[in-house]
Amino acid sequence: MNDWALIIYCGLITFFTRFSMIALLKKEMFNDRVREVLSYVPSAIFPAIIFPAVFLDEMGFLQFENNPKILASIIAVIIGILSKNIIATIVAGLAVYWFLIFI
Amino acid sequence: MKSNLKVFFKGVIDVSPLMIPVVPFGLIFGVLAIDIGFTPFETMGMSLIIFGGASQIVLLQLFSGGASSLVIISSVGAVNSRHLLYGAVVSEHLSDLKLTWKIIISYFLIDQAFARSNEYLKKNKEKNKYFHLIGGGATCWVVWQSTTFLGIILGAAIPDKLGLSFAVPLTFLALLVNDFRKLVNVVVIIISGLVATFGFNFIPYKAYVIVAALVGLFVAMILTKMIKKYE
Q: How many angstroms separate the CA of residue A89 from the nearest CA in chain B?
């Protein structure tokens, strides 16, 4: 599949998840239980992006030594817990990461 | 009744504070897409056609890891499944609209616009209250397209060794800040992360994102049920 086809398919699937909820979904379709479980979708899916990117090296092997991303992520989580602020979390993580790789 | 334009600008004003985190997100996306090897046209095309931050970053991440198109598309679908949650809430306010408006709003309906407009839709009864949603969505759209464009320009100038690829996990981590204090969420986060990390090399077709998400949701289902039992 070429790049443009891929982009268009990803666009379609994104559009239709939004469209289906506006055009098709009715309030009664979801009971409280389904809603409750769906509220965990971000917690279930984002770590699958975060963890491999932090803990694995370019070859896909676990890398604990000489890995500034781990400490930077820990600091970012702490700042996130304390501040509940998206920008502060990103800035703290990047600052620690740059400090560790450049100094 | 307030004029359409007035409601539209109310949406613009209400959503504006939420645009601050979108700026670095858009920049990072533009820079990374160029870094991975997409052309400036393709990068701009992604923001125009997909118009969804998380979807676009997942696309980049899996594409650079060599995942197949099918896996990329279904992972993007999985990331978007969180939108289904909003449907039950917002659709009741929009049920009388024409199909054209429903299509336009669907394109614009991203997390930030939804969050702000949902409060407005609940409080107001005017027929044209959906213009609030369009105002908020349009604001997000302008910010997202212009920061993507800036990222494309910066992408050519920023050196590789800045390690901007780390900005991807960091951005997603930041999106979870409100979940770090909740026990069930923390358990789900750790289990999903471990499944993805250890499954990275073993789960075929780079489907680790989907597998980890399903395991995480399953755990959430069990835990929330257990908590109810003991309450």
A: 6
Give tens-digit pLDDT for A10-23.
999 999 988 887 77
> Which residues of chain A make contact with B46, given a CB cutoff of 8 A?
7, 10-11
pTM: 0.79
Q: What is the rounded distance in angstroms from the CA atom of residue B171 to the CA atom of residue B146? A: 19
Give A34-49 as a DSSP string: HHHHHTTHHHHHHHHH
Cβ atoms of B162 and B58 within 8 Å: the answer is: no
CB B112 within 8 A of CB B22: yes
Cα gap A14→A37, rounded to integer Å:
21
> What's the rounded Cα separation, in Å, for the pair B48 and B57?
14
Token pair 């991303």 is found at A69
Choosing among A18, A74, A100, which should be mutated to test the B contact, i.e. which has the most B CBs within 10 A?
A18
The pair phi, psi for residue B55, each rounded to 5°, is -60, -45
Q: Count the Cβ atoms, other than its own, within 10 Å of residue B230.
A: 5
Pairwise CB contact (< 8 Å): B166 & A30: no
B90: pLDDT strictly greater than 80: no
pLDDT over threshold 80, residue B183: yes
CA-based nearest residue in chain B for residue A50: B169
- Separation CA B31–CA B110 (nearest Å): 22
B43 alpha-carbon distance from chain centroid: 17
Beta pairing partners, A56: A62
Distance from CA of A81 to the nearest CA of B (A): 6
A86-95, B114-123, B131-140, B179-188: the lowest-pLDDT one: B114-123
Two tokens, residue B181: 């204090």
B41 token code pair: 């046209």
Inter-residue contact B111 to B137 (CB < 8 Å) = no
